[in-house]
Structures are given as structure tokens and as C-alpha cells.
Amino acid sequence: MLGFIKQQERKLALRLLTWHYQRNNLTMPPAGQLREQAYRVVDDAHRIARERGSNVLAIIKELIGDIRRDKQKESENRRQDSGREK
To answer: What is the rounded distance in angstroms from the CA atom of residue 25 to the CA atom of residue 4?
Structure first.
């Protein structure tokens, strides 16, 4: 059974990911994939916090920002590619 705090971190990561996708008008992945991203973010944040001795919540926010930037780049690349095909 997961600890209460880890469950809350996963819920927070899921809400932050959803908010970032909506805020940046990005296509929302299916719920299962979004949940997997949130879980991966929390697990990565815990690993990084152990290595750096940092705050887990700050790392979660940083990782979600990285995901958002990656998705924006993918979206821009698709738009550029579709413009070239015409």
C-alpha cells in the first residue's frame, strides 16, 4: 500500500499535468497515459530529491514544466511538417 503522502503527490502531479496541457492548448493524452506520466514524475522527483537533497514538490513542478516544453516543441514540429507537405 502506498503511503498517504505519495498518493497526494501523485494526485497533485496529475492535476498539474492536466492544468499545463489545458493552459497551453495541447492535446490531452488518454487518462491512463496521463496517470502514468504523473506517476513517473513523482518517482523521478523522489529519485532526484535523494540525489540532490531537494524539495520533492519543487522538483515535480520542474519536471512537469519540462514535459510541457517537450510537448510544445512536438506540436510546433508537427505544424511545421504539415506546412511543408502542402
So the answer is: 32
